[in-house]
Design a protein that fits this description.
The protein is mainly alpha-helical. The chain has one domain (40-187). The chain contains seven helices and no strands. Helix 2 (59-74) runs antiparallel to helix 6 (122-136) and helix 6 runs antiparallel to helix 7. Mean pLDDT is 84; it is low at 28-34.
């Protein structure tokens, strides 16, 4: 990451390195090829973490990554949330198994996350999270190239967020009424 010249760092450095967990040795005797699996374990799809022979990164891996980022963002106390903290294991197979177990059914998903979402975000964030899980899990990798599967996944994600936005608008109106009503009574 490079620092903007208009916003220099206090320590005098012009940048810093990230993702050192994916660094490889420059020693020619240890040199390896760059793996298909790159990224931050917390946000990678379960299949990308497993990186089985023949694995091919697809749009589905990106959609699933979007879901993991969204979940991470709406969890209120990330440092103390066991469900999210377990994603950061140093073993990609363990991270994949943990995520797959957490999302494998609606009941397990609720068990792991229901009390963790930031209450200030309201029901709309919970609805969007539940909707993403429902749309994206499970999907067979063999079906990912089928046009109707692609359409179903993308349209499903958009539909779930549109429904969550409707809930958010209703929550905002209710909150506004609660905040405005007492002021009006006091003005009289």
């Amino acid at each position: 990451m490079i620092t903007l010249p208009s916003n220099p760092r206090d320590d005098g450095f012009n940048g810093f390195l990230i993702d050192l967990d994916h660094a490889i040795s420059t020693d020619e005797t240890v040199r390896q090829s760059i793996p298909e699996r790159t990224g931050t374990f917390e946000f990678m799809s379960t299949d990308a973490l497993e990186c089985l022979p023949g694995f091919r990164h697809t749009y589905y891996d990106d959609l699933q990554s979007f879901m993991w980022v969204f979940l991470w963002l709406i969890v209120e106390e990330r440092p103390t949330c066991a469900a999210v903290n377990r994603w950061g294991t140093h073993n990609p197979l363990d991270a994949s198994a943990i995520k797959a177990q957490q999302i494998s059914s609606e009941a397990k998903f609720k068990h792991h996350f229901s009390g963790s979402f930031d209450k200030k975000l309201g029901q709309s964030a919970v609805q969007a999270a539940m909707g993403l899980r429902k749309v994206l899990w499970p999907v067979e990798r063999d079906d990912l190239d089928r046009k109707e599967v692609i359409t179903r996944l993308y349209e499903g994600v958009i539909k779930e967020f549109n429904m969550a936005l409707e809930v958010a608008e209703g929550e905002a109106e209710t909150l506004e009424k609660r905040l405005v009503a007492p002021r009006n009574r006091m003005a009289n």
